[in-house]
From TrEMBL:
Keyword terms, alphabetized: ATP-binding, Disulfide bond, Methyltransferase, Nucleotide-binding, RNA-binding, Transferase, tRNA processing, tRNA-binding
Enzyme kind, highest EC tier: transferase
Disulfide bond as UniProt keyword: yes
PANTHER family, per the entry: PTHR43052, TRNA-5-TAURINOMETHYLURIDINE 2-SULFURTRANSFERASE
Domain annotation tRNA-specific 2-thiouridylase MnmA-like central: ranges: 208-267
Enzyme Commission no: 2.8.1.13
Chain's gene name: trmU
Organism the protein comes from: Alloprevotella tannerae ATCC 51259
Transmembrane annotation, as ranges: none
Catalytic activity: S-sulfanyl-L-cysteinyl-[protein] + uridine(34) in tRNA + AH2 + ATP = 2-thiouridine(34) in tRNA + L-cysteinyl-[protein] + A + AMP + diphosphate + H(+)
Record protein name field: tRNA-uridine 2-sulfurtransferase
C-alpha cells in the first residue's frame, strides 16, 4: 500500500471521520474531499452544509490531511435533479441516493479528482471481496440496518475495484465508540437524514417547482368510486399511505393513470391491492459481472426499497428480459424504484435496475 495514493470522501459526519481515523491507524494519510452541492439552484449553503464543512476541516487538521472542496452544484442539479424530475413527470418513483452515488460521488468526482488516486475511501457501510478469478465484488455490511450496498448498486466494476470502505465491516455503535474514544469532532452528530444532498428539499417541493399543480381525481380501486381530488400524480408514490388526507382510511396509493391524471387508492391495513409478487427489471445493470446471462430460473434475494431485510425470490431470465418473482407478497412495488439484486445468501450485491410493471396475467 505504501506508494498508493488514497483519497477519502468526507461529509462532516461521523462515518467518514472514523473512516479517516482507521486509515491513519493503517499508516495511510488520505487527501480529503468535501463535495459541495448547496441546497438551491444558486448553490446557497444551508447551516447544515456550513457545519459539515467545519467538521471536515477539523478532521483534516487533526490528521494532517489535505482537504479540498469540490463544487458539483451544477452537475448535481443537471444530472440528479434532472433525473428526479424526469421520473416524477413519467409517474415513476425516483431514487436520488442511487443516482447521486453513480453520477456525483463516483462519476463526476472520478473525472475531477479521483483519477489521480489509486484508492477512494468512503464511510459507506459496504464491503468488497475478490474471488479466485480476481474479480472484485460489492458485498453487504454486517450491520443490516446500515447496509448501503443498495445505494451503490449502480456503480461499475471500475469504481468497486478502487473503493475502500474502512468502516464497512463495523456496526454503527462500534463506529460511534471509536469516534468518541478518539474525540472526533463529529462524534455526537446525528445520522444524516433525508435524501442524498437535497437535505430539506423534498421530492414534493421539486415536483411543485418544476411540474406545478394539476388537479385530478382520486378513485377507489375496488369500487371505482370517486373519493376526492389531488393536485397532480407526481406528488404520489405507489405504496404511499401517509399524507393522503382522506377520511375513513388508511388508504394506500395502488395505481396511477398518468394520461388521465388519476390516482387509484385502496382502503384497509392489509389491502390486497397494495401488495404484489412479480415485476420486470428494466435494463438491469450488473456491477462486476452478470452471473444470470443465460436463460434460466435463479434463486436470488432482493430489495425494492431501503430496508434491513432481503426478500427471497426467483429471477427468471428469458432472452435478455429479467423478471423477479418474490416468494412472499411485498407491499408497494413502485415502478421506477430500483430493485437491487443479491445472491441467495444476501452476500454479493450483483446489480440493480428500475422496476417495471408486468402484464397482470403474468403476476398470478
Ligand atoms: N458532501 C460530501 N462530500 C464528500 N463525501 C461525501 C459527502 N456526503 C457523503 N459523502 C461520502 O459518502 C458516504 C456516505 O454518505 P451518507 O450520506 O450515506 O452519510 P452517512 O452514512 O451518514 O456518513 P457520514 O456519517 O460520513 O455522513 C460518507 O461517509 C462520505 O464518505
Amino acid at each position: 500500500m505504501g506508494s498508493m495514493k488514497t483519497a477519502a470522501l468526507i461529509s462532516g459526519g461521523v462515518d467518514s471521520a472514523v473512516a479517516v481515523h482507521l486509515l491513519k491507524e493503517q499508516g495511510i494519510t488520505p487527501d480529503l474531499f468535501y463535495i459541495k452541492i448547496g441546497n438551491g439552484p444558486q448553490g446557497e449553503w444551508d447551516c447544515k452544509a456550513e457545519e459539515d464543512w467545519e467538521m471536515a476541516t477539523a478532521v483534516a487538521r487533526r490528521y494532517g490531511c489535505k482537504l479540498k472542496l469540490i463544487d458539483l452544484q451544477k452537475e448535481y442539479w443537471d444530472e440528479v435533479v434532472g433525473y428526479i424530475v424526469d421520473r416524477l413527470r413519467k409517474g415513476l418513483t425516483p431514487n436520488s441516493d442511487v443516482m447521486c452515488n453513480k453520477y456525483i460521488k463516483f462519476g463526476c468526482f472520478e473525472e475531477r479528482e479521483g483519477h489521480n488516486y489509486d484508492r477512494i475511501a468512503t464511510g459507506h457501510y459496504a464491503q468488497t471481496e475478490t474471488d479466485e478469478a480476481g474479480r472484485v465484488w460489492l458485498t453487504t455490511a454486517p450491520d443490516p440496518i446500515k447496509d448501503q450496498t443498495d445505494f451503490l448498486a449502480q456503480l461499475d466494476g471500475f469504481s468497486v475495484r478502487k473503493l475502500i470502505f474502512p468502516i464497512g465491516g463495523l456496526m454503527k455503535d462500534e463506529v460511534r465508540k471509536i469516534a468518541q474514544a478518539a474525540h472526533l469532532a463529529p462524534a455526537k452528530r446525528k445520522d444524516s437524514q433525508g435524501i442524498c444532498f437535497l437535505g430539506k428539499i423534498s421530492f414534493s417541493e421539486l415536483a411543485r417547482k418544476y411540474l406545478g399543480e394539476k388537479e385530478g381525481l382520486v378513485v377507489e380501486q375496488e369500487t371505482g368510486n370517486i373519493i376526492g381530488k389531488h393536485k397532480g400524480y407526481w406528488f404520489y408514490t405507489i405504496g404511499q399511505r401517509k399524507g393522503l388526507g382522506f377520511g375513513g382510511g388508511p388508504w394506500y396509493v395502488v395505481r396511477k393513470d398518468i394520461k388521465r391524471n388519476i390516482i387509484y387508492v385502496s382502503r384497509g391495513f392489509e389491502t390486497k391491492a397494495a401488495y404484489g409478487k412479480a415485476f420486470r427489471i428494466e435494463m438491469p445493470h450488473f456491477i462486476t459481472y452478470n452471473p444470470y446471462e443465460a436463460d434460466g430460473d435463479y434463486r436470488v434475494t432482493f430489495k425494492v426499497r431501503h430496508t434491513p431485510e432481503f426478500t427471497p425470490g426467483r429471477l427468471l431470465v428469458r432472452g435478455g428480459k429479467y423478471e423477479l418473482h418474490s416468494d412472499e407478497l411485498i407491499q408497494g412495488i413502485a415502478p421506477g424504484q430500483f430493485a437491487v439484486l443479491y445472491d441467495e445468501q444476501a452476500h454479493r450485491c450483483l446489480g440493480s435496475g428500475e422496476i417495471g410493471l408486468l402484464p397482470p396475467a403474468k403476476i398470478q
